[in-house]
Design brief:
Layout lengths: L10 E4 L5 H7 L11 H6 L3 E4 L4 H9 L4 E5 L4 H8 L5 E6 L9 H12 L3 E4 L2 H10 L5 E3 L21 E5 L9 H8 L2 E6 L2 H10 L4 E5 L3 H10 L2 E4 L10 H9 L4 E4 L8 H4 L5 E3 L5 H12 L5 H16 L1 H13 L12
Parallel strand pairs: 1-2, 1-3, 3-4, 4-5, 5-6, 7-8, 7-10, 8-9, 10-11, 11-12
Helix pairs in contact: 7-12, 10-13, 13-14
Length: 345
């Protein structure tokens, strides 16, 4: 996917918090930290801006006759108002919220209205796509792929020695209660990586030598853990929203063996679902099922290199920057308010 030389095929505004790390991870010229999903939008020939209140910026763009797209991550009063007004802008919702029936009446109405006013709805889960299709049959709904910087996250043959630890990364809705028993029954150590203060306090309260807490590690250290671990465990509750999608993508890019709980985080289209290079177990599985799954990896060490190649190939085909850029190009180019398409290849 080649970056457009156009002054701006369009500008995409999202209601995400902007900070220094986001700016750094959007910069395609740096490689000290992994890229962020917004790079796909840039490579599709658009500018990308995080603005909680983009009103003045939108007006300036419209005066310059630049196409504008509002990308709503989280329902907000300002974006709700902008979706309501008859402005000549594209309205796109990235739905990663709980089902409407699980929200308060007022919030459900607000979310329903935001979705109803969208020109397109994007989702991370095939299950969510089927759910929304029943509610909004007339609105284009597209499952957009997960993203990982495959240049930054990669397998390392030197570190790929299958060190005797299991890696449990992530911040949200993980089942911490199973970790000690899994570690003790397998006779191995679990490395629990998180940036979440609540998770940190929970792991510290467990006070077990079997669980090694790594809090707020650098991306370099995280990559090294993916490259050298025995396997990655993603035991998350994704029954309502996708959780663990970032860690899943990073682990696959590093060629790791992955065991993940069934749910929205691993709900793929049927044509991809048949070739997933990781193991999905039922949600809320008991410890013995998890252990048996991990032991099956250990029982076939000769195939470890082949499994790692399958995981890496999957990441490059479906989760890489070029794959995401193609998807964003197709999504944004199909919206009603756009300029002349810019060739991408």
């Amino acid at each position: 996917m080649k970056r457009s030389r156009s002054a701006g095929k369009g500008v995409v505004f999202s209601n995400l918090t902007w900070n220094t790390q986001v700016a750094q991870r959007l910069n395609p010229e740096q490689n000290s930290v992994p890229g962020w999903f917004g790079r796909g939008i840039l490579l599709a020939g658009h500018k990308f801006c995080c603005r909680m209140n983009p009103v003045l910026s939108i007006l300036r763009c419209l005066l310059r006759r630049q196409p504008v797209t509002l990308l709503c991550f989280n329902p907000s009063l300002i974006y709700g108002l902008l979706f309501f007004l008859p402005l000549p802008v594209n309205r796109v919702s990235l739905f990663q919220w709980r089902p409407l029936s699980r929200l308060s009446a007022l919030k459900a109405l607000f979310v329903w209205f935001t979705l109803r006013r969208s020109h397109a709805i994007l989702v991370y889960s095939h299950t969510t796509k089927r759910y929304l299709r029943r509610i909004f049959p007339e609105i284009p709904i597209r499952q957009i792929g997960l993203y990982v910087d495959t240049t930054y996250f990669y397998p390392d043959p030197v570190k790929d020695r299958g060190e005797d630890f299991l890696l449990v990364p992530g911040d949200h809705k993980r089942d911490e209660s199973l970790l000690v028993e899994i570690a003790e029954r397998l006779g191995t150590r679990i490395v629990r990586v998180t940036r979440n203060e609540t998770v940190r306090r929970t792991i510290e309260s467990i006070a077990s030598e079997a669980v090694d807490l790594r809090f707020n590690v650098s991306f370099d250290e995280l990559r090294a853990l993916y490259q050298s671990c025995r396997a990655v465990l993603i035991l998350s509750d994704s029954s309502e929203i996708p959780t663990g999608i970032t860690t899943l993508a990073e682990a696959l890019a590093c060629g790791a063996d992955v065991v993940i709980s069934r749910g929205h985080s691993c709900s793929w289209p049927p044509e991809i679902d048949k070739s997933l290079p990781f193991v999905i177990i039922p949600a809320h599985s008991d410890v013995m099922l998890i252990i048996d799954t991990l032991r099956r990896f250990d029982a076939d060490p000769a195939r470890k290199a082949g499994r790692r190649k399958l995981a890496r190939d999957f990441a490059e085909v479906h989760l890489s920057e070029s794959a995401l850029a193609r998807q964003w190009y197709e999504v944004l180019d199909a919206l009603p308010h756009r300029s002349v398409p810019v060739a991408c290849g």
